[in-house]
Amino acid sequence: MKIALIGSGSALGKNIIDISKNNPQLEILGFQRSKRKDTANTKFYPILRGVPKNPEVLNDIDAVVYLIGTNQGSDKEIEQINVEFLKNYLKVHPKGCPLIYLSSVSVTTQESTYAHSKKVCENKIREQENPYMILRPSLLYGDYDRGNLYSLQNKLKWLPIIPSPPVEHQIQPVHMKDLSEFIILLVQNGNYENKEIVVSNPNPISSYEVIKKICENFSTPRIVIPMPLKMIRILIKLVTFIFTNFDLKSQLQNMSSHEPFDSTEALKLGYKPRKFKGL
Q1: Residue 86: which of 139, 137, 35, 128 has the closest Cα?
Q2: Pairing relation of β-strands 51-52 and 42-48?
Q3: How is the chain split into domains, by residue range?
Q4: What pLDDT is attached to residue 147?
Q5: For the segment 116-147, what is each residue's pLDDT rounded down to a tens digit?
Q6: Rounded distance, CA 120 to CA 146, Å?
Q7: Dmax of the chain from CA atoms?
Q8: How far apart are CA 239 and CA 235, in angstroms?
Q9: What is the CATH T-level fold of the domain 2-144+172-204+259-268, as seen in this structure?
Q10: For residue 84, what is the DSSP state?
Q11: In angstroms, how far is CA 246 from the centroid of its own chain?
Q12: Residue 143: CB partners within 8 Å, gap ≥ 6?
């Protein structure tokens, strides 16, 4: 079975490749900007602005997993990478080939440029005529990731006293290996239901507890103080203003109260999440 990863250089793409090494039935075609040597079951091809330089190699694959996306940069850069690159790719997508698109659960909770770009992309996926599945994961973490919780960890290590969202504020982090295994399972089972599926952790954990676990990685103890969300937002804006290298835009946007994400449908299809135990 052949799977094409559009954006194989992403953290999730690397996790999918790692997991596929243990499955001799899988052959991965990785499309990314940076050069990389082929491995036993993965061949790499160049890609530019979402378009593979060798689109003909897509003609005999079983499924495409589209992973290109970003929440970093200016509004224009986010729109270009998320929306324009996808539009470019869809022009060469092989007819009849199933497509799994990595969206974000933020499309249901945010009004950010990133969330808007993902909404536009979801509509583009629905408009094309091939079988598809849109995955909406919540907060991702795991091997190779340098954003999200890892980015937060790098920022917190400079603070002796760390403000935290209130104890009742919860998140549902998804480990990339769990999502990778789920994606491979969908391809193997041919589960393309032309709809959107939320992929979240059914065991919410307090943001306060997550930050405490992150602080366990520091060489010296930290004091973590839970505060109201309103005060947290003010502090983040202040820190971002004073320290221009502290890009906390995405963290600020994610600090909103909402109902727990329901991953029942993903669980029925074989998604097996782990409990969060730290980074």
Answers
A1: 128
A2: antiparallel
A3: 2-144+172-204+259-268
A4: 76
A5: 999 999 999 999 999 999 999 998 999 998 87
A6: 26
A7: 56
A8: 6
A9: Rossmann fold (3.40.50)
A10: I
A11: 21
A12: 11, 14, 15, 18, 176, 177
